[in-house]
Specification:
It holds the Pfam family GTP_cyclohydro2. Helices cover 33% and strands 26% of the residues. It is of the alpha/beta class.
Length: 198
């Protein structure tokens, strides 16, 4: 997959002013954004988050997952450093799309875990393709990152794009009764690295 740079603008947010860079991915017919703060192209490792779209968590305050809280935590961390980048990839539902994610939630309400629900719908557990990061990283001249994630596959994916992941920073948010099973499936079946919470 590839993405074409289109335009940039300012984006003032609750966590300060970011620069928003828009990319178009003709293959997936999707529009993606990268939010940056400070000079990310100066060669120093960039505090970065690769965030997969989650309409329910990012915009609708869902408590079924930790996406919204992770996005806010990443924006806050970047604003505190005054420098960083958030790659906001439109790969809703780990790449299966919003309507299929709703179908997966329905199956989860009947007892399936996140991975089983995807499989029952005929999808792999994680359909995301990170190759469209490459043109974004090149455009922004980012060669090394300190990556905020619990997902080892994201670290591997960035390294495959030729980016040096000099550090992985855990991005842990609080669990609640609605997302406990989701978080434990991520740790148990998807290899996410969570530290024990007291
Ligand atoms: N198919 C499916 N996708 C989900 C479900 N819950 C959340 N998602 C999607 O999962 C994506 C977020 O990925 P996660 O696996 O939660 O976390 P991650 O981004 O890989 O890892 P971190 O960097 O640690 O956050 C978003 O695109 C969500 O829409 C679910 O139950 N089923
Ligand atoms: Zn989510």
């Amino acid at each position: 997959m590839t993405a074409r740079y289109v335009e940039s603008s300012r984006l003032p947010t609750a966590w300060g002013e970011f620069e928003m860079h828009g990319f178009e991915d003709a293959e997936g017919n999707k529009e993606h954004v990268v939010l940056t703060m400070g000079d990310v192209g100066n060669g120093e490792p960039v505090l970065a988050r690769v965030h997969s779209e989650c309409l329910t968590g990012d915009a609708l305050f869902s408590m079924r997952c930790d996406c919204g809280m992770q996005l806010h935590a990443a924006m806050k961390a970047i604003s505190e450093e005054g420098r960083g980048a958030i790659f906001y990839l439109r790969q809703e539902g780990r790449g299966i799309g919003l309507l299929n994610k709703i179908k997966a939630y329905k199956l989860q309400d009947a007892g399936a875990d996140t991975v089983e629900a995807n499989e029952q719908l005929g999808f792999g557990p994680d359909m995301r393709d990170y190759s469209l990061l490459k043109p974004m990283l090149e455009h922004l001249k980012i060669k090394s990152v300190r990556l905020m994630t619990n997902n080892p596959r994201k670290v591997a994916a960035l390294e495959e794009q030729g980016v040096d992941v000099v550090e992985r920073i855990a991005l842990q948010t609080a669990s609640n009764p609605h997302n406990e099973k989701y978080l434990s499936t991520k740790a148990g079946k998807l290899g996410h690295m969570f530290e024990a919470q007291g």
